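Here's what a typical entry looks like (Two component transcriptional regulator, LytTR family):
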Amino acid sequence: MKTIIVDDERLARNELKRLLEDFPKINVVAEAANADEAIELINEHNPDLLFLDIQMPGKNGFELLETIEDKVPEVIFTTAYDEYALKAFEYNALDYIMKPIDTARLAEAIQKVEHEMKRTETISPESFLGEHDQVFVKDGEKCWFVKLGKVRLFESMGNYVRLHFEDQKPMILKSLNSLEERLDPKVFFRANRKHIINLHWIEKIEPWFSGGLLVTLQGGTTEKIEISRRQSIKFKDLMSL
């Protein structure tokens, strides 16, 4: 697993690298002392996993995750502060480790990552959910049995995903990453860190900032979704002859 360590303390980075030497599946490809360095390295290496400190000069760990344009890697937070644990899991963190890091606790966190990786590898194209599949959605007291082709947009809301279909916007307890793994990529496209769009609902496409695109979706209220620069390249390849 390609891994990046993000921590403003050099000694903390060195100690974590030393501990990770006992885990041959973890390949530390880079390290960063702040969020700005980390963003450049994430764009360069496209890592599978981040070990991420929370309190750092400049942007903190949460603000770093907010600035990632596309799919966020799996995240294990490493911090000396326990008051951020609840917020960490709102960002779909796989684990939250307190400093100083204990080897047994680190092994437990890495086991979670390996389990998640194995789970995603076992998903075959035959198991993708397509536009003709129907899914049961329950939000509070309301229930729907909706055909996925009617869902024009999936929007990340922390540990939840909001489905946009007709004039309804129910939420389900699922991360956008895990949902993306189940959806047919020929129909449902990851536009950016927060959105998956149904390609059949696109009404208009416009050039946008920094090489990105802005798509307008059909629907009761016209939604405009930005496709990030990196995803725009994939989008153009997907939609070209």
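The chain has two domains: 2-121, 131-239.

More examples are in the samples folder.
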